[in-house]
Design goal:
The protein is built from 23 helices and eight strands. The chain is α+β, with helices and mostly antiparallel strands and 650 residues long.
């Protein structure tokens, strides 16, 4: 067994490598050359601190749950309401890393970028399938060892400047006219890195896995922050060493000037530095692969349960496994990265008509980073509020969040292209303030909070009383408990017989006995009674699953869209029958309930199905299936599917 100390080191190394993606690899180069060695230290410290604080606060949140499984269920349930930002975050992270590797490494070297991207994805798929989250710390330990060897080799080479006084004295390539520009520029950097990890699925999966293994999330992320700090400082020193040998030294450039390929350019131009170039390319490959394989595993972990539970119409066109697989989305990232890398060529065409627009097509890493400095900040703030609040679920307006995020990234773009740092800083503050102040509707949480009773299985033999409003519904609930009927009978009286309701294998079952009033003049049960029985059973089913439903106050109404029944056998009075209801299928708008009627010998008396629709109680317009209906009925659907091999209707 690995002791906790070693486990924290292994996970810390994995955390650091997974966080060393396009931003860390190449924006640290930009910051260092553009603003100097002190700016590098400030930038790296903020970045590493944001990573460490994510682990520390996650440790606090995780302690609210007795098991890691409960914590995982809580996160996945609450994150399901933030699918769009989580999804976009992962795609942008992979795309910008591919873009940066291709534009700032392979393109200057004259290597066909598309083949390099496909190579990355091929290696990612292999590592992602070979090393699951339980084993990824071991594969990353190997990658980390190779990375350490690269660092040691570079420090043994005279190319690298080791004197801190020389590093500090190198002139910055960009100088602002006043201190307020530096302060304003620091705002998006600080906020972006402080809230960045909170929407990264890789780190949520790691934090949960660390808890599953009994490790310390806080200690692992503190170690990870320190290792990450060292990696980025090395990257910055390498960049400054290249800058000191370039023609750029001592010149003052525009804020939009890019220096991200300076290590590749300088080491490639001098044959004596090709060993440094090889080491740098290996360094970039290791950091990128550690991000890609982590993203591959986390993407599957997050999307597979979402796709499994979803009834979206998209699955009518695409197989669920294809949608949940990271492979097609990774190839979409390749396509996006390749297109944006060559965006300047399209800009030349646009320049034929309006030369002032050419500069907007000089696509740089900052175009992607704008998302993390503005768009994602508000979603991260809101999600932190949601995940910290373990006793209730906060529902926010998705449209308001998206519109505000869209405004913030647009304002950020205006500030970037006009080189106005104050506008950029304002664009980052807007989503922060709105995310903190916007109000959400608090509802009791049913996703497994430790303060609540666990959700009861529908096949359980002991359940709490459903608190049905009427005596009839109390009677049903008592039968569902499998206990004595909750009637206050007079002393000395004896209960003779009654109908029963219960659940079994995903079916809601109602037993009843026909009497003479149910028969026609011939003596058999009148055909219309079967529909009446099915309808009555359906109402009992609804009373059981949605005891709080009140037609007078409900925001929606349930209507029958269609009903069918096939008569298979006759029955007579006092011949007991059971009516079985099953949730057969559902999509966004409609629920299909199948029914069957069996006699005492378990022979089919009849079968059929009905389709339900949901309308707004005020204007009677068709609406999606309400969440309360989904939550109360979905367990029956899932349970019935599990038993479909033995319970399929013939």
């Amino acid at each position: 067994m690995i002791n906790k100390f070693v486990k924290n080191i292994l996970w810390g190394n994995s955390v650091a490598l997974a966080w060393t993606w396009g931003i860390g690899l190449f924006f640290s180069v930009q910051m260092t050359v553009q603003f100097g060695f002190k700016a590098l230290l400030a930038y790296v410290t903020v970045n590493a601190l944001g990573l460490a604080l994510f682990g520390v606060f996650n440790e606090y949140i995780a302690k609210k749950y007795e098991t890691a499984e409960n914590y995982e269920a809580k996160f996945l349930a609450k994150a399901s309401n933030f699918k769009v930002p989580f999804f976009i975050y992962q795609l942008v992270a992979i795309t910008l890393t591919l873009f940066a590797c291709l534009k700032y490494v392979t393109l200057p070297l004259g290597i066909l970028s598309f083949l390099v991207a496909v190579m990355f994805i091929g290696a990612t798929i292999f590592l992602g399938e070979e090393f699951k989250i339980e084993r990824i710390k071991y594969s990353h330990a190997v990658l980390g060892t190779v990375l350490l060897a690269v660092v040691v080799y570079c420090f043994s080479n005279d190319f690298l400047i080791k004197d801190l006084s020389i590093l500090s004295s190198l002139p910055a390539a960009t100088k602002f006219s006043n201190i307020s520009d530096y302060v304003s520029l620091s705002i998006p950097i600080i906020l972006g890195f402080m809230f960045g990890p909170w929407l990264d699925l890789q780190h949520w999966q790691r934090a949960i896995q660390i808890k599953k293994e009994g490790g310390s999330i806080a200690n692992s992320y503190i170690v990870g922050g320190l290792i990450f700090w060292c990696i980025l400082v090395f990257d910055g020193i390498l960049a400054l060493s290249a800058y000191s040998q370039s023609d750029f030294l001592g010149q003052n450039f525009s804020f939009l000037m890019s220096f991200k390929s300076i290590i590749t350019d300088i080491s490639f131009a001098s044959p004596e530095l090709h060993n440094i170039l090889n080491a740098y390319v290996l360094f970039v490959c290791i950091a990128s692969l550690a991000t890609f394989d982590s993203g591959y595993i986390a993407f599957k972990w997050y999307t597979e349960p979402l796709v499994k539970e979803s009834k979206s119409i998209i699955f009518s066109f695409f197989p669920p496994k294809l949608v949940s697989s990271p492979i097609p989305w990774f190839f979409l990232c390749i396509l996006t990265a390749t297109i944006t890398m060559h965006f300047a060529e399209f800009g030349k065409f646009v320049g034929m008509f309006d030369s002032s627009l050419v500069r907007f097509f000089r696509f740089e890493l900052e175009y992607y980073l704008a998302f993390y400095a503005s768009f994602f900040i508000m979603y991260a703030v809101v999600f932190i509020r949601v995940i910290v609040n373990s006793k209730s679920t906060m529902n926010f307006s998705a449209l308001k969040l998206f519109s505000t995020s869209l405004c913030s990234i647009s304002i950020f773009g205006i500030g970037y292209f006009s080189q106005n740092m104050n506008i950029m800083g304002f664009a980052s503050i807007v989503p922060l303030v709105y995310g903190l102040l916007t109000s959400g509707i608090n509802k009791p949480d049913s996703t497994g909070s430790e303060e609540q009773l666990p959700k009861q299985s529908i096949s359980s033999s002991t359940s709490t009383n459903d608190k049905l409003a009427s005596e009839a519904n109390k009677y049903i609930a008592a039968n569902l408990q499998g206990s004595a009927i909750a009637y206050d009978l007079p002393p000395g009286s004896e209960l003779i017989s009654s109908s029963k309701c219960y659940t079994l294998n995903g079916e809601f079952i109602h037993e009843l006995t026909p009497t003479y009033q149910d028969t026609n003049s011939v003596g058999n049960v009148y055909f219309a009674m079967y529909g009446l029985w099915v309808g009555k059973t359906r109402e009992m089913f609804f009373a059981h699953t949605m005891p709080e439903f009140d037609v007078n106050t409900s925001e929606f109404l349930i209507l029958t869209k269609s009903y069918s029944h096939k008569f298979l056998r006759e029955i007579r009075e006092f011949e007991k029958v059971t009516i079985h209801l099953t949730i057969k299928d559902y999509n966004r708008k409609f629920v299909t309930i199948a029914h069957k009627i069996l006699n005492e010998d378990k022979q089919f008396v009849g079968k059929g199905e009905q389709s339900l629709m949901f309308v707004d109680s005020k204007n009677y317009s068709l609406i999606d299936i309400p969440k309360s209906v989904m939550d109360s009925h979905l367990p029956y659907y899932e349970e019935a599917k599990k038993n479909s091999k033995t319970k399929t209707l013939v």
